[in-house]
Write a structure and sequence with these properties.
single chain
């Protein structure tokens, strides 16, 4: 078995899920007492969130690239960034290392297409929904039609993620707000919803359209690389 290098802590709530799911998947495949070989660097998310707010993606690229290099030096055979949003700096991270970066949007697109969907609703942080890095990969590289919410709906989802989910608070009222947005875009042709924030699976388990859990998709791709 190879060793996965995980860049986590963005937030710790979703990184916990990565650790759990990766170990469960390895055990399911190999049985016995097998578990995943993982090296991890976990950040103080407040520092990362500050640079996101100020738009200093160059600084963030340097920070995550340094983590990837450290994990490679420590023996990681591949790198995974345990968050959707920070794949905005995926190119910088991959260019800094000599081992593969397992990109969450590639893994997500694979699952969307495997399930036969062509039109998806993408929800996540404002950065993921508004910046081009995620939509371009899904649409440009995989030919998927991507729908994103309007600006007011983006604010609602973004605030739920940062003010509640990232610190482990899950409220039914917030769940209903997100489900209402998903229902709206079902009528606009969305065949599935991509939970493009790794905290969203903690609050959205099912919806009026099939749900693509990007944490699960990413973990499957990581397991394929290390086993």
């Amino acid at each position: 078995m190879k060793t996965a290098g995980i860049i986590g802590g963005m937030s710790f709530e979703s990184t916990i899920e990565y650790y759990r799911i990766l170990n469960e998947m390895v055990n399911e495949k190999l049985g016995g007492l097998h578990s995943a070989k993982i090296l991890m660097e976990s950040y103080d998310f407040d520092v990362i969130a500050f640079h996101q707010k100020t738009g200093d993606w160059q600084k963030l690229g340097t920070i995550l690239a340094n983590s990837a290099k450290k994990l490679e030096t420590a023996g990681a055979d591949c790198i995974a960034i345990a968050t959707n949003t920070m794949h905005n700096v995926a190119r910088e991270v991959q260019n800094s290392i000599n081992i593969p970066l397992i990109h969450i949007a590639d893994a997500t697109a694979y699952d969307v297409k495997e399930r036969g969907f062509e039109v998806l609703l993408l929800i996540g942080t404002k950065y993921t929904m508004k910046e081009s890095f995620y939509v371009k990969k899904l649409a440009g590289e995989y030919g998927l039609k991507v729908i994103v919410p309007n600006d007011d709906e983006m604010d609602v989802i973004h605030n739920i993620i940062f003010d509640e989910l990232c610190i482990g608070n899950i409220f039914d009222e917030s769940r209903m707000k997100i489900l209402k947005i998903i229902e709206k875009y079902k009528s606009f042709g969305a065949e599935c919803v991509v939970l493009g924030c790794t905290e969203l699976p903690n609050i959205i388990k099912e919806a009026s359209v099939p749900v693509i859990n990007t944490v699960h998709s990413h973990c499957k791709a990581i397991i394929k690389e290390i086993i």
